[in-house]
Amino acid sequence: MPVSKDWTKRIDAVGLMLVVSVSTLLLAGCGGTADPLNRQAVTGEVTLSNQPLDTGSISFDPQDRTTGRPGGATILDGKFALDRQRGLPPGTYTVRVNSADANEMAAGEPGESRRALPKERIPSKWNSKSEQTITVVDGEENSFQFAIP
């Protein structure tokens, strides 16, 4: 009989350790919403010639790729938004805005096969040659306004 009492105590002890271990792992897993990149929500408005940009896209290219990640959003009626899940880690980003004019086609180079590509409405200093930047700050409201002449 004493052997079975020792055996029962061992099973109880092992069972208790197992329950504590599993509970600890489950509780640690419940906090899985932490973002190792510390992404921040980013919102804003874009105007073209003092009017909300009807449609387009905005992209953010990190100046430090070791801590930042590229991101982007669609612009509709002058507004864009990246929620926290798709947001940007804190840092400085180059901003690029694009919006095609479906009514006007870009001219190709002479001798080049022509493809019907819409002309870009946004000046190159706001996209392909952009020097526009923003700084995303941890815990702040990262809302930006861009006025394109």
Indicate the mean pLDDT.
81
Q: Cα-atom Rg, whole angstroms? A: 27 Å
How many β strands by DSSP? Answer: 10
Shape, please?
elongated
Return the structural class.
alpha+beta
CATH class of the largest domain reads: Mainly Beta
Could you spell the SSE succession in H and E letters?
A: HEEEEEEEEEE
Q: Termini distance?
A: 92 Å
Number of domains: 2
Largest sheet: 4 strands, mixed
Give a written overview of the molecule.
With 149 residues, the chain is α+β, with helices and mostly antiparallel strands. It folds into two domains: 1-34; 42-148, Immunoglobulin-like. The chain has one helix spanning 2-30, and strands spanning 42-48, 51-52, 55-62, 71-76, 79-82, 91-98, 100-105, 118-120, 133-136, 142-148. Strands 1, 2, 5 and 10 form a four-stranded mixed β-sheet that branches. A four-stranded antiparallel β-sheet has the order 4-3-6-9, with no helix packed on it. A hairpin with an 8-residue loop joins strand 3 (55-62) and strand 4 (71-76). The N and C termini lie far apart (92 Å).
Write the topology of this structure.
Layout: H1 2-30, E1 42-48, E2 51-52, E3 55-62, E4 71-76, E5 79-82, E6 91-98, E7 100-105, E8 118-120, E9 133-136, E10 142-148
Parallel strand pairs: 1-10
Antiparallel strand pairs: 1-2, 1-5, 3-4, 3-6, 6-9, 7-8
